[in-house]
Amino acid sequence: MKQTRIVITGLGLTAPNGNTLAEFRRNLLTGVSGITTVDVRYMGRHPAGMCTFDPLKYQKKKDVRIGTRVGSISIYCAREALADSGINLDSRDKSRIGIYLGITEHGNVETENEVFNISQFKYDTKFWTHHHNPRTVANNAAGEVSLNLGITGPAYTIGAACAAGNMGLIHAAQMLRLGEVDFAFCGGVSESPQTFGIFAGFKSQNALAAHADPTKASRPFDKARNGIVISEGGCIYTLERLEDAQARGAKIYGEIAGYCVNSDATDYVLPNPERQAECVRKAIANAGMTVEDIDLVNTHATSTPQGDIQECVAIAEVFKSRSTPPAINNTKSFIGHAMGAAGALELAGNLPSFDDLIVHPTINVDELDPQCDIPGLVINQPRQVKRIDAILNNSFGMLGINSTLIIKRFAS
Predict the structure, then answer these.
(1) pLDDT (mean) for 222-243
(2) How many domains are there within the chain?
């Protein structure tokens, strides 16, 4: 990809175990899980990852009441990213700023709540809120950020199942390279634990995690893993063309090196390791790199019995020619599966490795599944390494969508 160079200049997040990058990273290095249990309508208590950010930091009470949970998550993350970037929006042409947010699903929460509410009134639709439609449109998250920040450029969401977090960054980089915008907010967001439907759906697939200790429920690669922990969260980045970032003296977290998006075209749910491996290989090639250049691989592994194995097969195949494997970790073991936010949050948790050369581990691996025992896994304890110059971030989703994003250490 010999194109305009795109860099990350700001970052804002909320995760089940942290509301700033510093807090999030500290908890990843010290083994602190953010998983608790929640009451799920009709289903009782289940493990889930919930965020504790203050929505009133950047919104008025009326806006929180009218808007959505995912809107509040998005506004919080976007405002934090903006502050981190050092950009003054008042000095910028707001029609040249884009907002591109990945989502997995949207609208379920609001519709479920309204159906439940009118059930208390014999299903009389006069009790149905007039805020329902703007709350449930797919572009809600980006739209609420646009309203909050007064941004008049393109603002929309990208539905890409659980590959969506990566897709937000990929799409923003493309729009910057095309000259459509000069500054972009991008990443992924999710309010998934607010809907009982997603819990019921995974339970019906025998893919919903259960454990006496919720902090141990998400356990990718462990032999006793039994499903997904549903979580909420968000991570939004600011992206700029390199020359613009340098002109204003911005700090740079890293550079978009390469990416690939492809599809399995195989199954509604079960991943295809051949297509996943193809996605990883193409991303490396698009970055102008070889497998030897990748220092850290963040896995998508969701703690499902078959899905984790399929990804391990793909990774082992891609990196089999290396004498020394890259470090391989997983962030969902700490925060569960944040769906549309997953890829963006997981990337954020690894970006500080460029500076401290520490790889956070996968936790909760009491007995490694032999079928997931691939070289390079960092398990239960952080690992100090000699070099982190390129991070490869995998995010895969239902209906066979795959995304791989590579961020490299910035070098002028």
Answers:
(1) 98
(2) 2
Helix (H, G, I), strand (E, B) or coil at 244: helix
CA-CA distance, 141 to 139, in Å (whole number)? Answer: 6
Domain C-terminal end among 247, 270, 291: 247
The CA-to-CA distance between both ends of the chain, in Å, stands at: 17
Q: Are 406 and 284 in contact (CB under 8 A)?
A: yes
Which two tokens mark 401?
A: 């969508």
pLDDT digits (tens, 9 = 90+) for 186-195: 999 999 999 9
Counting every residue, how long is the chain?
412
**Whole-number Cα distances in Å, 132 to 120, 138, 198:** 18, 12, 19
> Mean pLDDT in the chain?
97
What are the φ and ψ backbone dihedral angles of 23, each rounded to 5 degrees? -65, -45
Do residues 47 and 57 make contact, with C-beta atoms less than 8 angstroms apart? no
d(CA 395, CA 301): 9
Q: Is the dihedral of CA 370, 375, 379, 381 positive or negative?
A: positive
In terms of domains, do 221 and 276 share one? no
Do 271 and 130 share a domain, yes or no?
Answer: no
Active site residues: 162, 300, 337
172 vs 238: CA distance, rounded Å: 9
Q: What is the pTM of this model?
A: 0.97
Residues 338 and 196 in one domain: no
